[in-house]
Specification:
By secondary structure, the chain is α/β, with parallel strands linked by helices. The protein is built from eight helices and 19 strands. Helix 5 runs antiparallel to helix 6.
Length: 454
Amino acid sequence: MDSVTSTRPPLTRSIPRRTADPQTGLGVVRLRAAFRYYPFTHLGTALLATACYLAGSAFAMRNSYEFMLSAVATLVLIVLAADGRLQARRMAAVELVWDIPSLSACTPISIDLKASSCQPHYFYRLHAQVTGRLHAGNQALVHLRAEVSSASQELPLELELPVCGELSLRIKLAVRDVFGLTRSHLPGRDERRLLTVRPTSMAMRSMPRIDAAVGDDTTRRQRSADEERYYMREYQPGDRLKDINWKAASRVDELISRISPVSEEQTRIVHVELRHFRPASPETLDSMLHLNYLKSWLLAFLREVKTEYEDYTFRVIAGTAEYSVETFEEIDELALHLAAITFAPAAEYQLSVHPRELFIFTTAFDTALASYVGQLGESAIHLFRTVSALPRRTWLRRAKDDGRIRMPLMRRSGQLKSFLPGSWALRRDRFMLGSSILGPNVHVENEPLDVSLL
């Protein structure tokens, strides 16, 4: 069975850019080049400006002490800048090795950057400036910035990203002095990586009971000639009644299943659907965190079911894409595909098969859910939906034990130093309770999310 039946979308994404005339573009390039080769940091620039002021004051007031202070400060800056530039040229051939673990949202990430044996000497350190953009949704970006310096070959970098998506990282290497006055970029040593940040791991708060008598089956024959003999095992949900060895079961007071190539083993197929549908509108803080929680909820459901029912397989539907998942490794691979999924308008499509039991994961943004459920007929439907935890009237306060889940975008005070969300983090969608879905064969489980910025 193929693990994934659809092609994974590329990690790169086209971003609209402002058009400019050639003269303006050339001026920007020259400005960036001048800034790149400018040898002083902000602190060094302030010291240089102070030295220039002292020099002017010394000539005006004829003060020899100010002139000496100005000359010493200028000489120190020139020596540090010149020595740093020589070391940067000497380390131009340094090789940077990335040790990147699997990236997950809302999880501290430790990226180890290791340089080659060439190291700066004296009062200098190898400095790495990390910038990046996380494509978290439709026109929704998270800007990333971090810096790390080290006198050794290792540059440990710690990050924590708030949401999943596609991450574009860029690292610039430079040589800086320990006083933080000068910098010298290593020529041609800009490193770029395209990474995928998976949805965060979570545990199911409640696990629905899957009725083995209702679900859909498929058959798998034994392939090995050595296995063409009957063997017995304990009864598992999903085994056919005619495969039970009643004679052996009567002796041990336990149901025993008889498996053979003649009586084919039945494998349960669980149909799961992710409805990432929302009317076309700008992304908001609520839409981003609701969709991220929904992806983690779906993955937690697959892992819980696979742990309890090892022989079950999944048919996961996400819009017009379909995935066949059979093992835990394929669940992890599915997480990479889910990370790139964003909100889209409700698609007009029909299931190729009509399952007898369907598990739907959606949000309160799904306005077409009621009509879709009405088309499923007599199928048993388990609906998992995220809704707003805010009451309809803001002056009414809920109890602390109302079951809501607090979802802050920034979980730690220091996160603001490493990433900065776009304007979407300031927009809100309140009072999303979703439409009522009623029916004797519909089980609805709403998950109230208390979304906030901090």
